[in-house]
Amino acid sequence: TGALAVVGQLKPCTYTWKVDGSSGQGFIAHELQAIIPDAVVGEKDAVNEDGSIKPQGIDTSFLVATLTCAIQELKAELDTVKTELATLKGQA
């Protein structure tokens, strides 16, 4: 329960890969980690011993259950609204 509220906190973004200039879409790891920790590995701003960046990783498969639940919550709300609308139309 509450998946719709969780999805409402997500901040999808678009970006350009520095390596080849191609476009991408996804999430900023540390922002996603604050909402769905299982979807992210690594630490924000971590560096290797040589000072190079140690990037975080995202596994979006961990979002599937939450997104599915959010869709189910929306469907339940829509079904309720449809029932209420049908009732109101029947009374007109």
Mind sketching the topology for me?
Elements: H1 3-9, E1 13-16, E2 23-26, H2 29-35, E3 40-41, E4 57-58, H3 64-91
Antiparallel strand pairs: 1-2, 3-4
Helix pairs in contact: 1-3
Overview of the molecule:
The chain is α+β, with helices and mostly antiparallel strands. The protein is built from 3 helices and 4 strands; from the N terminus they run αββαββα. The protein has helices at 3-9, 29-35, 64-91, and strands at 13-16, 23-26, 40-41, 57-58. Strands 1-2 form a two-stranded antiparallel sheet. Strands 3-4 form a two-stranded antiparallel ribbon. The longest helix is centred in the last third of the chain and has 28 residues, at 64-91. It is elongated. The model has no long low-confidence stretch (mean pLDDT 95).
Q: Which spans have pLDDT < 50 for at least 5 consecutive residues? A: none
The percentage of residues in β strands lies in 5-15%
**Morphology:** elongated
- By oligomeric state, this entry counts as single chain
Main pleated sheet: 2 strands, antiparallel
| Average pLDDT for all residues | 95
Measured distance between first and last alpha carbons: 35 Å
Q: How does the helix and strand content classify structurally?
A: alpha+beta
Specify the helix fraction band: 40-55%
Q: How many helix segments?
A: 3
Radius of gyration: 20 Å
Walk across the major sheet and give the strand order.
Answer: 1-2
Order of helices and strands: HEEHEEH
How many strand units?
Answer: 4
